[in-house]
């Protein structure tokens, strides 16, 4: 069996009447970069909170290196950036990093951490004076301060501009390249596509898909068929259709062959025909859209 660093075994969690997680099983091998995807309220943050020992499961169990994440020794090997950034607003950035580093036997020197996450030069600033994006970058950087074996990042780049997001990606990739395990949630599908080697799709508290980016993309079995045409008759198997002002038509279908045959049979004068795999975003929408449930 591969070297599993984190496991959820039949994990359930409710909040009152709300079932946030419903018998979730998830094995995370050491060194993997996993993206958790799911619509709002799917249960992603709840799962992360259980993995990092902030909450207890109602049923089942979570393990980090075979142990309960609530134990101090286990906590020391994990890093976390929660969805809501909570920084000590009156402390300076450098002091905050020192404070966090003091909890660990062999921390990353703060200067190195700042460099890695593009925070150099902000050491003397009070956390409360940082911009929203700078606070977010600091909170993510601090998850790596204790040289964790595994980090859990809940929407690490929300609110960041493109530059800052790419900087964070570099930091996350560098950690992963050194063998670190990363579990991140994101609403930016291109982020998961850019970073993760495995995608776990969660919906209504359950894991509905688990695979590589390519597998998830293909799972809905959809193709995007595009061409330029002046008129468009009714065509077989079209799930969605868009047309821009230049006459570029984009159709989503589960049977591109039949669609193209239909185009030819109907005598449509099309040009620039392209048939492509769907993007992760297309697959994600198809998987989690209740009215497309039969596709999943
Ligand atoms: N402390 C809480 N008290 C009551 N309900 C909660 C609590 N935390 C989460 N929930 C509910 O549990 C469900 C799962 O929430 P969770 O935050 O895990 O989802 P999520 O996938 O992280 O969503 P988002 O993408 O919006 O962050 C939701 O219905 C949410 O309203």
List the helices and strands and how they pair.
Layout: E1 4-15, E2 18-29, E3 33-37, H1 44-51, E4 59-64, H2 72-75, E5 78-81, H3 93-101, H4 110-116, H5 132-143, E6 150-154, H6 162-177, E7 181-185, H7 189-195, E8 198-203, E9 206-211, H8 213-219, E10 223-228, E11 238-243, E12 248-253, H9 256-265, E13 271-277, H10 280-288
Parallel strand pairs: 3-7, 3-8, 5-6, 6-7
Antiparallel strand pairs: 1-2, 1-4, 8-9, 10-12, 10-13, 11-12
Bound molecules: adenosine-5'-triphosphate.
Residues 15, 18, 20, 38, 40-46, 83 line the site of adenosine-5'-triphosphate (ATP).
Membrane topology: Peripheral membrane protein
GO cellular component, one term: plasma membrane
Main location: membrane
What would you note in describing this structure?
This protein is α/β, with parallel strands linked by helices. It has two domains: 4-217, P-loop containing nucleotide triphosphate hydrolases (Rossmann fold, 3-Layer(aba) Sandwich), CATH 3.40.50; 223-277, no CATH class. It is 30% helix and 29% strand. The protein is built from ten helices and 13 strands. It has helices at 44-51, 72-75, 93-101, 110-116, 132-143, 162-177, 189-195, 213-219, 256-265, 280-288, and strands spanning 4-15, 18-29, 33-37, 59-64, 78-81, 150-154, 181-185, 198-203, 206-211, 223-228, 238-243, 248-253, 271-277. Strands 5-6-7-3-8-9 form a six-stranded mixed sheet, with helices on both faces. The protein has a four-stranded antiparallel sheet with strand order 11-12-10-13, covered by helices on one side. Helix 8 (213-219) packs across helix 10 (280-288). The relative contact order is 0.14. Mean pLDDT is 88; it is low at 291-296. Bound molecules: adenosine-5'-triphosphate. Adenosine-5'-triphosphate binds at residues 15, 18, 20, 38, 40-46, 83. One of its GO terms (molecular function) is ATP binding. It comes from Jiangella mangrovi. It is found in: Cell membrane.
